[in-house]
Amino acid sequence: MPRTIAVFGAGYIGLVTAACLAELGHAVVVRDIQPDRVQRLQAGEVPIFEPGLAEMIARNTERLSFTLDAATALAAAEVAYVCVDTPPTVSGDADLSRVWSVVDSLRGAPALLAVVVKSTVPVGTGKRIRTVLNESGLEHVGYASNPEFTAEGRAVADFMTPDRIVIGGSDQDAIRLVADLHHGINAPIEIMDVASAEMTKLAANAALMTRISFINEIAALCELTGADVELVSKAIGLDHRIGSHFLQAGIGWGGSCFPKDSEALKQLASNTGYHPQLLNAAIEVNNLQKRRAIQTLKQALGSLEGTEIALLGMTFKPSTDDMRESPSTVLAARLLAEGARVRCWDPLAPQELPEPWSQTTRHPRALDALDGADAVILATAWPELRELPWHDAHDLMRRPVMFDGRNLLDPAKMRALGFTYMSVGRP
Ligand code: UDX
Predict the structure, then answer these.
(1) Where are the domains of the chain?
(2) Looking at 20, 222, 257, 344, which residue is catalytic?
(3) How many Å apart are CA 174 and CA 149, to the nearest integer?
(4) Which PROSITE patterns match (predicted)?
(5) Of these four, 42, 281, 302, 336, which has the most CB atoms within 10 Å of its CB?
(6) pLDDT for position 90
(7) Which superfamily does 258-423 belong to?
(8) Would the CB of 382 count as within 6 Å of ligand 1?
(9) pLDDT (tens digit, 9 = 90+) per residue, 16-66?
């Protein structure tokens, strides 16, 4: 049955959750604390790029509204979905201040039946929220954890056709309510206690990150032994016990989730006195990938001092405008520190970016960035990069040196064009 839902947070997760719940027939009021963001949404503008999201919001305007005011969002809400961000603090712990501020605002919500947390939180947070709800006179309001497993760039599809829906709770009514909100989605529903649901989210991300670092380590060994990681990755992925996803070698993972969640899990482990060896190693291998990329380039060019480097791809992966924890940012900073000038290109990255990007030059066309460059780094797997006229690019560059950080191009073809071509884990 259609419900009235307040979604707290109009970021990637909140907006996708709100739009998809509206698409499923529910009435959704989204509350965000940023006036500019709310105004734009009220005016029909979608402030983030996510394939299919703007269209979905547009076709559900009757069931979707946006407000700055928590009381307005909660006036008729039966469910409060917490989708605010939980950025890392200096210690690596997740900053839960936004979650707590939503929980504080729930007092006096007349129709509220359940609070559902989608934000990624440390294990044990749900238990603390339950206690605070009880202390606030909200004992009658149910609590559930409903972590998200949506990847940016395909978040709408991941929400509507997920591999599974995880619901953590101890209150059967709240669990049923959350399950019913997803009516129309065909996926297994995994019901568990709150702590296990919170851990499932962190463990799923840790498993994916570890796989990427694993294949990156194999790539390093391939480079030393003359093997080709692309062939190895494909062949091991055909083993159904291993599977083919997240075995793409490259300059490593970034984004709004993996770096933050790996630090949060590390911190969680350390708070319990446990030393997470595999997780630490996965993080270390990920950092090493960027250092190795710069090292490889330095060896090819002699020195980076005074060179012009074209950095193609700035976002942490294609199909998103998200720059959070992008491997490119680390590369840009290292290149600048080594005395190189950095000219960058990206089809979706925002124009206004903080350090180190303000010290780089931005070019609307990849070929412009390549004109006169001493080397090029492919840092994001944008499909456009496969289609670039590399023959022309070769002629434009001062020195045709390429580090393909995403193994996008064919080594033999690039060498035939005259490039000094290096990639990750390929001979
Ligand atoms: C991830 C999880 O996939 C998602 O389930 C979770 O909810 C949030 O975190 P996201 O951060 O959007 O999603 O991106 P994802 O597509 O998983 O890629 C993460 C990073 O890993 C990117 O930087 C990507 O380039 C890198 N990656 C991914 C690889 O280097 N190799 C791979 O094989 C896959």
Answers:
(1) 4-192, 258-423
(2) 257
(3) 20
(4) PROKAR_LIPOPROTEIN
(5) 336
(6) 85
(7) NAD(P)-binding Rossmann-like Domain (3.40.50.720)
(8) no
(9) 999 999 999 999 999 999 999 999 999 999 999 899 999 999 999 999 999
Those residues whose C-beta lies under 8 Å from the C-beta of residue 231, and which sit 6 or more positions away, are: none
Q: Determine the angle formed by the axes of helices 125-135 and 97-104, rounding to 10 degrees.
A: 30
How many Å apart are CA 155 and CA 147, to the nearest integer?
Answer: 13
Residues 326 and 305: their CA atoms lie apart, in Å, by 23
Joined together, the tokens standing for residue 40 give 């734009």
Residue 427 preceded by cis peptide, ω within 30: no
Reported ipTM? 0.95
Q: Which atom of ligand 1 is nearest to the CA of 251?
A: 30
Tell me whether the omega of the peptide bond preceding residue 2 falls within 30 degrees of 0, making it cis: no
pLDDT reported for residue 245: 97
257 noted as active-site residue:
yes
Helix (H, G, I), strand (E, B) or coil at 354: coil
Strand (E) or helix (H) holding 285: helix 277-301
| Beta strands 308-312; 114-117: pairing state | unpaired
421 phi and psi angles, rounded to 5 deg: -110, 125
Q: Collapse the DSSP code of 321 into the 3-class scheme (helix H, G, I; strand E, B; otherwise coil) and give the result.
A: coil
- The answer to whether the CB of 323 is under 6 A from ligand 1 is no
Write the DSSP assignment of 232-279 as a string of letters. Answer: HHHHHHTSTTT-STT---SS---SSSHHHHHHHHHHHHHHTT---HHH
- Residue 28 Cα to ligand 1 midpoint, Å, equals 28
> Letter for the amino acid at 73?
A
> Considering the entire predicted model, what is its pTM?
0.94
Give the CA angle between residues 306, 341, 343 to the nearest 5°: 145
Could you give the angle at which helices 258-271 and 194-225 cross, rounded to 10 degrees?
110
Check for a shared fold between 4-192 and 258-423.
Answer: yes
CA 184 to chain centre: 26
User: What tokens appear for 403 in the block?
Assistant: 């580090």
d(CA 398, CA 117): 53
Alpha carbon distance 252, 305 (integer Å): 25
Helix (H, G, I), strand (E, B) or coil at 16: helix
Q: CA 13 to CA 156: how far, in whole Å? A: 10
According to the CATH classification, is domain 4-192 in 3.40.50.720? yes
> Does 313 appear as a known binding residue?
no
Residues 341 and 369: beta-carbon distance below 8 Å: no
